[in-house]
Write a structure and sequence with these properties.
It is a single chain. By secondary structure, this protein is an alpha/beta fold. It contains 24 helices and 26 strands.
């Protein structure tokens, strides 16, 4: 066999340096386009808008990723911590509180005695610290004659706040300087609780106007007008008091809380991880706690507030609603709330919507700080690397495979990446989610477009040039290798197909050359279509004969089944196409087919200047003999033993005979397929059984009985039975020897 010519070295995936350069350009363009669509996502700045007065962007991808990851985590990797183990609980001013007997009809500024009662009961129950997420800027004394109306609250603030450091009031400041706008608690409340017990409730708003965290430290004016000091936020202060450690900002913009380096962004901001389980942060109605305290049920407070951080806040359907990271996993207010203290107390259910009470942002932040579950946003390097990785993979795939396969890979990769990002998110690390998937999509589209303009256009030209002379599968193999076909072959199990038109000489005699060519073109089109549809290739046309291979050049584990199914489809279509053939004299076109499987040598055979893709071997020769023997056995389709063995359970079969062909000592059982199980008429199966019973009678040398059965079947139009009857009659006339094994010895090829 001639040696193959050496080909130029090629890049395994990209095929050429030109394609490699194009791929790099596509990746760079995809990354750049995503960066242009979302410039903030690829910068180190985490200034997603600041605190107030921000310019809102309609869509902010990094923030959207966090919200989607909350949804994915909640649905696939939910937090397993029981609500009772939450470090933080909420005392809610909810609808049931507004409608309670003690508070209904009064503004909150008139609730100070009741708030003091609840605050004292909660702290006496063992709470570590009590924070206020509401601000009372005025005193009830402004509206009522009794100047001592607020005394219960003032006393509670002084005892539990200034003395015990267990009460923290909230404030909101709109600037750093002393004369900047501020929303502060009433001066008497600030004095009672102590200067060191009032902290900021400011939240960190992203550019899409969604709250996803809080600033841990804020700048405030110091002792002198020109001095600036960093002061903890409400959530950080509550967490530090619960842990018994003081927080400290670092020079690099980070925050240390004991030995925990809190992941932070710009301006000491943290990103909260919300727990979407019902009742994840236990919430108690203030009105119920008020009744409980008046009833002296101290055990309830000790059971539910021991060692807890408690935040008093609004959980109302109309007040202080914020859109936060948990917007896709939001639940009804008070869903999963602990059982009330008061018998018969009923929480008023709210409408489920994405905007949630703002108090849960601070409560979640406190939990994150205590449990060390603050989310860490990805760095610029992580974002860029993820974009390049996703884009690079998709460019390699799209450069090598067809658009349909590339799109499927992109979808699978997107799902896998979402899974990886969800796992990372559950471990408090945020991976970019939508940006890499977008970059991968853009790279896929770019690579497909490039291939359409260059590579695939060349491929189509090659296909068009050679498809009339070579099978499309062979052309694909040639194009994929990037080289011309070389001489050589391999041994592989295949199934081969031989077909021939019965009485073709008589048909051709009745036609002129033009009519004959037109007939053969229609005939070959029918056969060729089914061979292609069943993953076979036409090895060659030889006069009116067709030789086909199943299982090469592309491997096919179902080559035997596909070949048999192909032959049955051909036989059916040829019956339907008789009117198209226009054979003079009304002759019927009947095709005999032989099918056999086995190990064959397949590959390119020929001379250096002219080659052919073909298969060779003993199994191939037997298929040819099965086709030519069809006339002798009254069958249009005969199948060899190995083919039957490979697909015996997928068709109904009839044994025609057992023969020993010239040149082979091993007997061959001749079979013909009748159809798929469940699709063959019962009468056909019954005749099959009678035919095979007659064959067994012949094997037992009961020739007269066998002949009678065959003749009876022949009267039904069974050509196989008619042929078998002739063979039995010959045995009656000339009996086989006494040591005959029941196998019919053929004397010609």
């Amino acid at each position: 066999m001639a040696k193959a010519r050496k080909s130029k070295p090629k890049l395994a995936i990209f095929g050429s340096v030109q394609n490699l350069v194009a791929s790099l350009v596509i990746v760079a363009a995809s990354v750049l386009l995503v960066a242009l669509l979302n410039p903030d996502g690829l910068s180190e700045s985490d200034d997603e808008g600041g605190v107030f007065g921000i310019e809102v962007d309609a869509f902010y991808l990094p923030g959207f990723d966090i919200d989607v990851l909350h949804y994915l985590r909640q649905n696939f990797l939910p937090n397993t911590r029981p609500p009772a183990e939450s470090p933080t609980v909420v005392v809610a001013i909810d609808e049931s509180t507004y409608f309670s007997e003690d508070l209904s009809g009064f503004p909150k500024v008139m609730w100070t005695p009741q708030i003091a009662t609840v605050q004292d009961a909660v702290i006496d129950g063992g709470a570590k610290v009590f924070g206020w997420d509401i601000i009372l800027p005025n005193s009830a004394g402004t509206y009522v004659a009794d100047r001592r109306f607020d005394t219960p609250l003032l006393k509670s603030l002084a005892i539990n706040g200034k003395r015990a450091n267990k009460v923290v009031l909230g404030k909101v400041e709109y600037g750093i300087k002393e004369n900047d706008r501020k929303l502060l608690p009433y001066r008497g409340f600030r004095t009672a609780v102590g200067r060191g017990n009032v902290y900021s409730l400011r939240a960190h708003v992203d550019k899409d106007n969604v709250l996803r965290g809080i600033p841990l430290f804020l700048q405030e004016q110091g002792e002198t007008p020109d001095s600036i000091e960093f002061v903890p936020s409400m959530a950080l202060e509550l967490a530090s008091r619960a842990l018994g450690v003081r927080p400290a900002p670092t020079d690099t913009g980070g925050v240390m809380l004991g030995d925990y380096a809190v992941p932070t962004g710009q301006e000491y901001s943290m990103t909260a991880m919300f727990d979407g389980n019902p009742g994840a942060i236990p919430t108690y109605a203030m009105a119920d706690l008020l009744a409980c305290a008046k009833a002296g049920n101290t055990a309830y407070f000790e059971r539910n507030f021991q060692d807890k951080v408690v935040i008093l806040g609004l959980v109302s359907d109309i007040e202080d609603r914020k859109t936060m990271s948990n917007r896709f996993i939001a639940r009804r207010d008070m869903a999963g709330a602990p059982g009330p203290c008061t018998d018969g107390y009923v929480y008023i259910s709210s409408t489920e919507r994405s905007a949630q009470p703002g108090v849960y942002l601070h409560a979640t932040a406190v939990n994150n700080l205590i449990e060390q579950t603050v989310l860490e946003r990805p760095s610029t390097a992580t974002r860029i690397l993820s974009l390049i990785l996703f884009s690079g993979i998709m460019v390699m795939v799209a450069m090598k495979y067809r658009p349909q396969a590339s799109t499927l890979v992109w979808l699978v990769l997107a799902f896998v990446w979402a899974g990886v990002a969800t796992l990372a998110f559950a471990s408090t690390f945020i991976l970019p989610l939508t940006e890499p998937i977008m970059a991968g999509f853009l790279s896929t589209v770019g690579a497909i477009g490039y291939r359409y303009v260059t590579t695939d256009r060349q491929r189509a030209l090659i296909h068009k040039s050679f498809e009339l002379y070579l099978d499309p599968n062979v052309i694909d193999e040639m194009i994929e290798s990037g080289d011309v076909p070389k001489l050589g072959g391999e041994s592989r199990e295949l199934t081969c197909f031989f077909s021939d038109i019965a009485s073709f000489s008589k048909i051709s005699e009745k036609m002129d050359s033009h009519e004959l060519v037109e007939f053969l073109n229609i005939y070959f089109s029918i056969i060729g279509k089914h061979i292609k549809d069943h993953n076979g290739i036409i090895e060659r046309f030889m006069g009116d004969a067709v030789i086909a291979i199943f299982g090469a050049p592309k491997p096919d584990a179902d080559h035997a089944y596909n070949c048999v199914a192909c032959t049955m489809a051909i036989q059916k279509d040829l019956i339907d196409a008789q009117d198209q053939f226009n054979i003079p004299g009304g002759m019927e076109v009947i095709t005999r087919v032989g099918v056999n499987s086995g190990m064959m040598t397949v590959g390119n055979v020929g001379a250096e200047g002219r080659i052919s893709y073909t298969a060779m071997g003993d199994a191939m020769n037997l298929a040819a003999r099965l086709e030519s023997g069809g006339k002798q056995f009254g069958s249009t389709l005969m199948v060899g033993d190995q083919t039957w063995e490979l697909c015996k359970d997928r068709f109904e079969w009839r044994i025609l005979d057992r023969v020993r062909v010239v040149g082979r000592a091993q007997p061959v059982t001749l079979r013909e397929p009748l159809g798929r199980p469940g699709e063959v008429y019962p009468a056909v199966l019954e005749n099959r059984d009678r035919f095979e019973a007659a064959l067994e009678l012949r094997t037992q040398r009961k020739f007269d009985a066998a002949l009678a059965e065959y003749q009876a079947l022949a009267k039904t139009g069974d050509k196989g039975a008619e042929s078998a009857a002739g063979r039995v009659q010959a045995m009656i006339d000339n009996p086989p020897p006494d040591d005959w094994d029941g196998v019919l010895d053929l004397t010609s090829k």
